[in-house]
Specification:
The chain has eight helices and no strands. It is elongated, with a radius of gyration of 17 Å. The chain is mostly helical. This is Transcriptional regulator with XRE-family HTH domain. Pfam families: HTH_3 (PF01381). It comes from Sporolactobacillus spathodeae.
């Protein structure tokens, strides 16, 4: 599934323009602890997970990758793996543009869906 928890902590931290040192101080953690959470080398204990969720005002389910959206008006559930794929898509402008262009045409969007399923099957087989 990847490191959904770490990716989301980092995303929320960067969204608020906080360095690891600044966030660690606010959460009464060491910079090393926070770095290990963000890189997936360690997982926070339940109390620390709650503290992180409270600080960012997000549900723990969001941090754990059980829900993709934070807004109540669109509570779509996706897997943590899909969250990471979407994140990578957004970080690659060329790939994002290709997918966007394919989705502009319904015929092409069906092709894109078939390609997605093929990639997903290939990934699960390896």
């Amino acid at each position: 599934m990847g490191n959904v928890l770490g990716s989301r902590i980092r995303f929320l931290r960067e969204e608020r323009n906080l360095s690891q040192v600044e966030l660690a101080k606010k959460l009464t953690l060491t910079n090393v602890q926070l770095n290990r959470y963000e890189t997936g080398k360690r997982n926070p204990d339940p109390e620390t997970l709650l503290s992180i969720a409270d600080f960012f005002n997000v549900p723990t389910d969001y941090l754990l990758g059980r829900i993709a959206q934070l807004r109540e008006e669109s509570p779509e559930y996706i897997s943590g793996e899909d969250f990471l794929i979407l994140k990578q898509l957004k970080e690659n402008p060329n790939l994002y543009a290709l997918v966007h262009e394919l989705l502009q045409n319904n015929r092409d969007s069906e092709l894109l869906i078939r390609i997605w399923h093929a990639i997903h099957r290939d990934t699960n087989e390896h």
